[in-house]
Amino acid sequence: MQIPDVPPQLLAALSQAAAGQRLALVGGVVRDVLLHRHHQDPWRGLPDLDLVVEGRAADLVERLPSALEHQLGQAVPMRQQQHGRYGTVAVELQLPAQFGGIWLLDLASARQEVYPQPAENPRVSPGTLEQDLARRDLTVNAMALMLPSDAVAKVQLLDPHGGQADLAARRLRFLHEDSLRDDPTRLLRAARYAARLGFDLAPEALEQARTTLAEWPWPWHLGDDPGEAPPALATRLRMELELLLEKEPWPQALALLQQWGGLGLLDPELQRDRGWRQRLRWARRFELPLLTVFVASAGEALLLARRLQLPHRTIRLMDRLHDLCSRLDQITDLQDAPSFWTAVLETPGTTPEAVALAVVCGQRPRRQLLQWLFHWRHVTAGLTAQQLMAEEGLRPGPDVGRRLSQLRRERLDQS
Q: What is the pTM of this model?
């Protein structure tokens, strides 16, 4: 089987460097090659290649320069970065232009995993290719293209979980009945792939999602200390959300996730919310991060932000939003005077970003908040302190500041 855009010499060099150990292409490249060759999907290109070897990936990478020189007839510049915990090596190759130029490879040692507790990080140990594929999220991502060990053999498909049949049916299936119990972030990945590829969640996968969410088998519950949440309900959940909002057709992905009940992993209010689409579109207009706006709409936004371990700056912004909305909700006499609203919105700690976030989240009074953002906050007293002292004969001191504030209020109310 030919792999589009990949020079045979590169595959031959990788096979040579494997030195008899089983080596395979895995991940998106396998899925996309099969979709393109057998189901006429458009070719999406190859940003990088993911490979798994039975053995130490670092040993293969050590042998790769000489194998490349043997296959290409010249030395190839190579950079690498090892991630020791999982035996993964990221490699950048600078091949000659006729062989595609720069190639990015991620080489990993085949491994198996066991989940000590639901939603915790798995315990990992060396394994076979088949065991490595069994760790995957979906059957369409649990296939491999075995690279030949000699120049005569051909690339072979390894498909122990029926991924090719699911590609043909354009459906997404989890690998086993405890898949979401082990790792609930797999539901977000399913939404990402469904939105990107136009696939449907298989009926049994949808039933698993709804049953698992209803049972909530994880050793942490909404309302518990956010710092005690297991990784798949905390940092890994945030990482999947970031990928969904940054790299996928997010309106479709979030709509599917909500349809399946998956937004309940974050917050019950988000699962019931029907206004997220409009808010996220407003977020883009205000150049606010989509994840920040999405989390800010939760019923317990600060708790969710802490559980997802959002950056400290984002959590401070959420605090400011909470304080601002509390102050605005206490105002019963909605005056029209710009100077009144400027005084309300220019208290210490309130920032333009917090006001913009309040607008996007639907806080009232919307018109006055927008006026302050785009006009009122830019209005000045019309002269400097030095000019004021010269014109009115004032001495340096607090009276100058008070008079400048008064002049600014007058100009605001005349605007």
A: 0.90
Residue 398's CB is within 10 A of a number of other CB atoms, namely: 7
Calculate the alpha carbon distances from 72 to 1, 64, 303 in Å: 21, 12, 55
Q: What are the φ/ψ torsions at residue 146 (nearest 5 degrees)?
A: -70, 125
pLDDT at position 414 over 90: no
| CA–CA separation, 42 and 201 (whole Å) | 21
Task: Extract the tokens encoding 413.
Answer: 């109310």
pLDDT tens-place string over residues 194-215: 999 999 999 999 999 999 999 9
pLDDT at residue 152, as a whole number: 58
Before 365, cis peptide (omega within 30)?
A: yes
Set out the domains of the chain in order of their start, with CATH numbers. Answer: 8-169 (3.30.460.10), 172-310 (1.10.3090.10)
Determine the Cα–Cα distance for residues 171 and 163; give it in Å rounded to an integer: 9
